[in-house]
Amino acid sequence: MISTTMAKVINILPDKFVAYISKKVVDKYLKKYANINIEGSENLKGIKTPTIFICNHLSNSDGLVLDKVLKEIDPTFVAGVKLSNNALTSIGVSVIKTTNIKPNTPDKEGLKKIIKIVRQGESILIFPEGTRSRDGSLIEAKKGILLIARMTGAPIIPIGLYGTEKLLPINKEGDMSMETFNYADVHIKIGKQFEFPTRVEKQDKKDYENFATKYVMKKIAELLPEDYRGLYK
User: Fold this and answer.
1) pLDDT tens per residue, range 95-142
2) Which of 123, 183, 194, 205 has a CB 3.0–4.6 Å from the CB of 75, allowing a cystine?
3) How far is 160 from 56, CA to CA, in rounded Å?
């Protein structure tokens, strides 16, 4: 993996040059280490746009891999702000189109930006869990996906992803700068586009939110091997 020192040097260069160099570095590592297998590409044809792509989250390489898979659609990725603050992970962020959000906080400004992007006709990709799963299985989704889907009315396409947890494993001490690439088979399965479930008249708000969250997350779970389905088996 590129060293932290080299990453810091790259990041002081002009933005366009940083993006150019970063793309070369990322392409090199993905080509060398990732054997990417894709199913369901036909589900991207003739879709309604803008659309909200949702995917499980296993690794800091998820966005890099998915950006290649969805390059023709070119969605904006919703990324945790800390990725931009780290010298190494900021290289990956510079390669893909992103909008930042503060994880585990009621980031109203971040959510407003995301909603605005969709309303302007641009697709987004969001990881509903809000963080990478430490054991590979689906964890509880945050409520942000519910708000974004309801406020925009955009249809959703689920994606199931696994193998990236081996491609770029999470550092056990939580130091992202120490994460390194490994050879791995990466599997991506793209589901069919669906409409976000609407609230039934007189339905309790909490019951609706629980139902809608499970409904959306199970769309991802259906695309994953059973061992990865976690809370949404």
Assistant:
1) 888 998 887 767 889 999 999 999 999 999 999 999 999 999 999 999
2) 123
3) 6
The answer to whether 202 and 194 are in contact (CB under 8 A) is: no
**Minimum mean pLDDT range among 10-14, 175-179, 222-226:** 10-14
**Residue whose entry in the numeric block shows the structure tokens 């193998």:** 163
Spatial separation of the C-alpha atoms in residues 66 and 82, rounded to whole Å: 20
| 8 Å CB contact between 159 and 36 | no
The Cα angle at residue 120 between residues 114 and 126, in degrees rounded to 5: 30
| CA dihedral of residues 159, 163, 61, 190 (deg, nearest 10) | -20
CB 197 within 8 A of CB 211: yes
